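In this section we turn from sequence analysis to structure. A common task in structural bioinformatics is to predict how a protein folds when a small molecule is present, because the ligand can shape the pocket around it. The inputs are simple: the amino acid sequence and a SMILES string for the ligand, here zinc ion. Study the lines below before reading on.
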Amino acid sequence: MRRGFAAGFAAVLVLGAAACAEARSAADPWAAIRVPVAGGAQSIGSPAAGCIAGAVALPQDGEGYQVLRPQRNRFWAHPRTVAFIQSLGHAAAAQGFGPLLIGDLGQPRGGPMSFGHGSHQNGLDVDIWFRLSGQPLDEEGLARPEPVSMVSGTKVNPATWTDTHLRLLKLAAASPEVDRIFVNPPIKAEACRRAGGDRAWLAKLRPWWGHDEHFHVRLSCTPGDIGCVPQAPVPDGDGCGGELASWNTKPTLLPAEAKDKPNHRNPVLPPACAAILRQPGVVEAGVR
Ligand SMILES: [Zn+2]
């Protein structure tokens, strides 16, 4: 009897521990998956609550770019996102920008991440660092890169921000598949000041917290991708007026401890994502 009670109590403890482990992060099973689901690419849900089938890996070294922190296995995305980065790298190389440093894209099947981003879930988001090193980084530099902020207080930092950064943002915004680009508010303000008469592209620059060391490019849903949930369109106009001014009173830089912190969000994913998570991947299916 006593033994039975002890065994039962132990079982409750084990179950409790399992429940706790599950509660730690809904993202864990997504982060644990190493390979995508094969087949045609399909973004499902939104960047902040979604997943992707048929993701492809951004090649580690292409013309005009390098992939940062490959050990994170966050270099997967929709083929359009990969093509966009390759074409931006090509254009940057042609203009002499030096290799672009590509930060996180998404996990092999997208989904929530156990640390860092709340978005990057449906294969349409990519972070591109502002740091332009001029020379390719070596393996250690890529694995543990040092970010460089473009912002000091409420302005761009004249010691780090250059016209090349403005040209790079304009180049990225010029791609028709780019829906919006998140940047720190002083960066948007500087772009507004310096853009001159060509202002249509400024609408895509969206002021947001952080994003002083990198800009975050979000592609629009792929036409015909019916499960992809688009974001509300960017507002009309160049976005250089009242909305931007509303950021003047808020702190916009994230404290160091806020970066890459564990993610306790638990987004409700579309039901199709549960099936994506369960499917065998290219490699698993191949070794059967
Ligand atoms: Zn991002």
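The longest helix spans residues 2-24. As an exercise, try to locate the residues that line the zinc ion site and compare them with your own expectations.
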